[in-house]
Amino acid sequence: MRSGERCKLHRLGCNNSGRRNTLTVFGMTPGTEFVLLQRHPSYVIRIGETELGLDEEIAREIHVKPI
Asked: What torsion do the CA atoms of 29, 34, 39, 43 make, to the nearest 10 degrees?
């Protein structure tokens, strides 16, 4: 994805249930639409009115489909 692109969460590939639960609390559930705001130095996404910073390891566990 490029900065500014919208996508829809397809699935979370986390094996760590604690991480999956934390992402879910922030609205990361299948079907959720979000925007990638930046990729460097860390990933920043916007879900509704919430901006969330993610390191690369976590970002790689988020599988999306373009809108």
From this structure: -40
Structural domains of the chain ordered from first start: 6-66 (2.30.30.90)
**What pLDDT was estimated at residue 7?**
96
Predicted confidence (pLDDT) per residue in 6-63, tens digit: 999 999 998 899 999 999 999 999 999 999 999 999 999 999 999 999 999 999 999 9
For residue 41, cis peptide bond before it (omega within 30 degrees of 0): yes
**Pairwise CA distance, residues 24 & 5, whole Å:** 21
Alpha helices in the chain (DSSP H): 17-25, 56-59
Rg from Cα positions in the chain: 11
Structure tokens at 18: 């604690």
